[in-house]
């Protein structure tokens, strides 16, 4: 075998060699992608798989683009590698082409395969040499130093194959009679791998056949003591038979009946593949790539919400084909594709749905995939209104423009999907009533539903009812998780094991995960452990008891503190769990709380759901495991203990939400807080959150809102109202009015029940802001007046300031400038008493608009200048943008049009940087007005045109109608174009009861005709 360095090494640290030595690989994503491609040399690796390797269950929207960038950089790097190598694009991903002899892992596999063929032909000497060559390729543990959980599983499989190759080579050398030379090596190997009984058996044979019978028997006794002390098990049947054979003298040495020519191997060539042979996979990989230009255009514009698919998926191919046909379309289909997957818990409904969705995502539904967990088996299933709100945001509709009623949301949803090919996955449906409003109207779309109910009332649905796995499928699943060689080595035990767990996929995954985590355990030992559980076999064949019995085995094997954490974690109602929750529940302030979670991950009681933006891991329960953990929680913890743990968990969320608000606003401004204690997560986590607080609030929206309701139900009213009002930071910016109302009504019920006057006033004041944003002015006034009465009685200046500020805005919007200015004056004094400078700046900005209308230009300018100074001092970008827009309008009033244009342009950039499409539409219209005033109608028309496109592009038809009216004013000489603009605008003005605008539009239409 040649000793020259290979071009690529994965059997140890990842290395690439060039003519001048090792090439430097940038750490991180490029390493992961290259390793994945090398492990599948000359075979296609899908882009989805590469995304999963890097980000697991939480990829960013730009994940596929980032993979493309990494591949491009790898191509440049590999230009300097030894040997011919290239990375080609092949749907659905990439393939690394190179001679297998350039990659140590491929060469290792080839050498072992050829050695096995030589052994079958009796050419033992040459087989031994090939196995030695194969093992010498290793330079440490496979892919050591590379950080990727899914790749680590593949690496462990290769590490296992190395040991298997060593055992095979030793077996062949024993057959060749090389006993003495093997004793020292086997003694070292049994010390390094004390639980591998095959190595111990080989040591016993080598000692005995070397004439060292007493040492052979002592080696057996050592193995027996170790297995009894460590595992409580007797040696395997093979080892016991070896001892018996030695004691009775019935262990003959190998006869060595191998032909001499084959022992020398001098004239027998090594087996090679026939020249020009090509595997089926290679033939497919060499097929021409399909055109991808349309895909590249769409990728950044479509939703990709599917959870990650599991790598060891097992199913019936006929079932997959039937689902594909139902979803992608039978000939002549005129309705939306619809399929429903049902079955009892643990049968893999969600797994099958996600697998099928990924399988069809690129070819069948290139315009995107929407996904929602409908929470049908929980106490609070998702409402159709809530789901439609989520889907509309994913389809590009800002929260402020999403209508309130279910019918209007459904109409907007169907409109957005009318010309698209989108797959909608609705997981865990409670019933047909929850699903029907979520069906698109276009035949180009499809819906895949899962649920425990049979869902027979879904019209035209293809139905799949899952049961337990067939025995061959269960064995295949077991093989994929723990390795085929382990299953093949204990066939009878494997069959007994899948029967013992009732062939339920979830139960089988739990048991197999324990075996995978402990390669020294035999399958027979696991069968024995299951058999020893009281009533285990009966319970494994009956419904839910099946899962409880299996989970009990794993639970009882945990350390006491791990069991306590599992129980307390079950209180968390979030879909995924950040690692700091473990520290909060146990009141443990270690810097890396994920260390507390990992023991539960090891035994599959928790799953790693992905890596969040902060770099920390996210975890999740399987539903049945959570139910089991909650049963244990009730049995082991008093209500007071549970309430204390919940308060710490909620205190952690409250601390992070408060810090996020402080970062956005520059401090604790324009918000009320209670006295409930906080629990501080690790400082490093908090720092990562604060790097982009709004992004964190967006990502944790479901968890935060759920915690408001959870604390309300548990009687932790101070935490409930405090967290609810703090979340207005998110609700207001993103237009999440439904969540604003939902969380506040739950918190309001809690504080009223507890007699918490200040909390009641705080929630009512915040609801007043919500109703004002919805133009429900009468309801807003009632809420604000009620809150103001309490704040005055409590002498709470911050509460008074917030109420009077919003009441002033209502008066200003209604045209009552005198009342508005008086309320603003009193609100300003209240904010000053509270020491809230941002509150002061907001009042100055809002009241400056009245000063402008009244011609008090100098007063307005002074107020805006002061507000800008405040915002810049605390770093509140959103406030600065709103004030600068008023400054631009003031400059336009003063006739300083050039400066107004510069100011509007600056604010437009701020809106674009923050993704504020509503603000962008406002600023485009402002710029149109500015250029119209400057006598530059061509530029004005351009900006008004862009404003129409921007507003109507996000279905803001009232804003679009206003921009149409602006544009029509400039088109006196083009009556046809003016009419084209005004006709749809008139319909909007009439529908929205915008009387003044309607009158002007109708006048212009009459004039033009």
Structural class: alpha/beta
Major sheet attributes? 5 strands, parallel
Radius of gyration: 35 Å
Could you tell me the mean pLDDT?
84
Q: What does the model show?
A:
The chain is 63% helix and 6% strand. With 1009 residues, it is an alpha/beta fold. The strands form 4 sheets. A 5-stranded parallel sheet has the order 8-9-10-7-11, with helices on both faces. Helix 18 links the parallel strand 9 and strand 10. Helix 39 packs parallel to helix 41. The longest helix has 27 residues.
Write out key terms for the chains shown.
5-stranded parallel β-sheet, 1009 residues, alpha/beta, 14 strands, 3-stranded antiparallel β-sheet
Spell out the blueprint of helices and strands.
Blueprint lengths: L7 E2 L5 E4 L2 E3 L5 H11 L5 E2 H9 L7 H16 L6 E6 L2 E6 L5 H17 L3 H13 L12 H27 L3 H14 L4 H13 L3 H19 L5 H12 L11 H5 L15 H6 L7 H6 L18 H12 L8 E7 L5 H13 L7 E5 L10 H11 L11 H12 L5 E5 L4 H4 L10 E6 L10 E5 L4 H12 L1 H6 L1 H10 L4 H13 L5 H9 L4 H4 L3 H14 L3 H10 L7 E2 L1 H7 L7 H9 L4 E5 L5 E4 L2 H14 L2 H27 L17 H8 L2 H7 L1 H13 L3 H10 L1 H7 L2 H18 L2 H17 L3 H18 L2 H17 L3 H18 L2 H17 L3 H18 L2 H17 L3 H18 L2 H17 L3 H17 L3 H13 L5 H18 L2 H14 L1
Parallel strand pairs: 7-10, 7-11, 8-9, 9-10
Antiparallel strand pairs: 1-2, 2-3, 4-6, 5-6, 12-14, 13-14
């Amino acid at each position: 075998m040649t000793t020259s360095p290979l071009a690529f090494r994965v059997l140890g640290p990842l290395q690439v060699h060039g003519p001048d030595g090792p090439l430097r690989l940038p750490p991180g994503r490029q390493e992961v992608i290259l390793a994945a491609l090398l492990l599948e040399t000359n075979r296609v690796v899908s882009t989805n798989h590469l995304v999963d390797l890097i980000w697991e269950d939480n990829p960013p929207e730009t994940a596929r683009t980032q993979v493309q960038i990494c591949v491009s950089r790898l191509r440049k790097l590999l230009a300097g590698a030894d040997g011919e190598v290239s990375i080609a694009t092949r749907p659905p991903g990439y393939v690394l082409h190179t001679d297998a002899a350039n990659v140590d892992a491929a060469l290792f596999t080839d050498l072992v395969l050829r050695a096995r063929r030589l052994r079958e032909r009796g050419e033992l000497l040459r087989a031994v040499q090939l196995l030695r060559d194969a093992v010498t390729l290793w330079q440490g543990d496979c892919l050591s130093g590379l950080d990727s959980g899914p790749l680590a599983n593949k690496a462990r499989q290769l590490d296992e194959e190395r040991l298997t190759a060593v055992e095979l080579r030793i077996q062949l050398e024993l057959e060749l009679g090389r006993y003495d030379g093997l004793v020292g090596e086997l003694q070292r190997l049994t010390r390094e791998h004390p639980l591998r009984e095959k190595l111990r058996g080989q040591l016993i044979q080598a000692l005995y056949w070397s004439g060292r019978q007493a040492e052979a028997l002592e080696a057996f006794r050592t193995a027996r003591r170790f297995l009894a002390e460590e595992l409580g098990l007797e040696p395997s049947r093979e080892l016991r038979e070896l001892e018996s054979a030695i004691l009775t003298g019935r262990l003959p040495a190998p006869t060595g009946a191998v032909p001499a020519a084959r022992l020398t191997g001098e004239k027998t060539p090594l087996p090679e593949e026939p020249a020009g042979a090509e595997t089926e996979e290679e033939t497919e990989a060499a097929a021409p790539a399909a055109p991808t230009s349309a895909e590249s255009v769409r990728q950044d514009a479509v939703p990709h919400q599917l959870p990650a698919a599991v790598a060891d998926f097992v199913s019936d191919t006929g079932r997959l084909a039937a689902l594909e046909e139902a979803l992608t379309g039978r000939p002549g289909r005129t309705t939306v594709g619809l399929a429903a997957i049902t079955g009892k818990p643990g049968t893999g409904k969600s797994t099958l749905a996600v697998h099928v969705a990924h399988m069809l995502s690129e070819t069948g539904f290139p315009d995107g995939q929407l996904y929602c967990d409908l929470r049908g088996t929980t106490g609070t299933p998702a409402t159709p209104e809530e789901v439609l709100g989520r889907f509309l945001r994913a389809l590009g509709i800002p929260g402020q423009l999403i209508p309130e009623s279910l019918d209007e949301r459904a109409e907007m949803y169907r409109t957005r999907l009318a010309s698209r090919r989108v797959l909608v996955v609705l997981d865990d449906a409670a019933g047909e009533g929850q699903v029907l409003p979520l069906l698109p109207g276009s035949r180009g779309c499809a819906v895949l539903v899962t649920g425990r109910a049979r869902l027979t009332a879904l019209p035209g649905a293809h139905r799949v009812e899952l049961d337990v796995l067939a025995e061959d499928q269960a064995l295949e699943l077991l093989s994929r998780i723990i390795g085929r060689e382990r299953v093949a080595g204990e066939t009878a035990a494997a069959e007994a094991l899948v029967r013992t767990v009732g062939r339920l996929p979830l139960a089988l995954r739990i048991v197999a995960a324990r075996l995978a985590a402990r390669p020294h355990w035999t399958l027979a030992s696991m069968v024995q452990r299951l058999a020893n559980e009281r009533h285990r076999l009966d319970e494994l064949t009956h419904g839910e008891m099946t899962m409880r019995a299996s989970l009990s085995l794993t639970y009882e094997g945990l350390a006491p503190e791990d069991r306590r954490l599992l129980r307390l974690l079950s209180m968390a109602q979030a879909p995924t769990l950040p690692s700091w929750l473990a520290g909060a529940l146990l009141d443990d302030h270690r810097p890396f709380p994920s260390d507390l979670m990992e023991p539960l991950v090891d035994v599959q009681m928790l799953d790693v759901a992905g890596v969040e933006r902060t770099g920390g891991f996210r975890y999740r329960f399987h539903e049945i495991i959570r139910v089991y953990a909650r049963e244990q929680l009730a049995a082991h913890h008093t209500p007071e203990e549970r309430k204390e743990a919940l308060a710490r968990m909620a205190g952690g969320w409250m601390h992070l939400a408060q810090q996020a608000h402080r970062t956005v606003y520059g401090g604790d401004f324009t918000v009320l807080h209670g006295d409930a204690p906080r629990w501080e997560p690790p400082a490093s986590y908090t720092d990562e959150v604060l790097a982009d607080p709004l992004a964190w609030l967006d990502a944790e929206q479901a968890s935060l809102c759920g915690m408001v309701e959870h604390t309300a139900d548990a009687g932790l009213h101070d935490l409930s109202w405090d967290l609810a009002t703090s979340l207005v930071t998110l609700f207001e910016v993103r237009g999440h009015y439904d969540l604003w109302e939902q969380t506040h009504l739950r918190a309001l019920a809690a504080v009223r029940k507890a007699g918490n006057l200040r909390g009641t006033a705080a929630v009512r004041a915040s609801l007043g802001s919500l109703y004002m944003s919805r133009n429900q002015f009468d309801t807003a006034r009632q809420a604000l007046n009620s809150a103001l009465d309490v704040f005055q009685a409590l002498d709470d200046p911050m509460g008074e300031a917030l109420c009077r500020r919003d009441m002033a805005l209502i008066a200003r919007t209604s045209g009552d400038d005198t009342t508005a200015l008086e309320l603003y004056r009193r609100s300003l004094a209240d904010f000053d008493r509270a020491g809230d400078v941002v509150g002061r700046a907001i009042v100055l900005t809002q009241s400056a608009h009245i000063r402008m209308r009244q011609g008090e230009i100098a007063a307005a300018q002074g107020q805006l200048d002061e507000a800008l100074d405040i915002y810049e001092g605390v770093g509140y970008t959103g406030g600065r943008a709103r004030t600068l827009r008023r400054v631009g309008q003031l400059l336009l009033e003063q006739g300083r049009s050039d400066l107004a244009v510069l100011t509007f342009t600056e604010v437009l950039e701020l809106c674009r940087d923050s993704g504020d499409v509503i603000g962008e539409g406002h600023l485009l219209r402002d710029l149109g007005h500015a250029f119209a005033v400057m006598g530059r109608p061509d530029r004005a028309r351009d900006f008004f045109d862009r404003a129409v496109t921007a507003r109507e592009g996000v279905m803001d038809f009232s804003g679009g109608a206003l921009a149409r009216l602006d544009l029509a004013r400039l088109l006196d000489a083009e009556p046809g174009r003016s009419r084209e603009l005004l006709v749809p605008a008139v319909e909007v003005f009439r529908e929205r009861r915008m009387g003044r605008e309607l009158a002007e539009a109708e006048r212009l239409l009459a004039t033009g005709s």
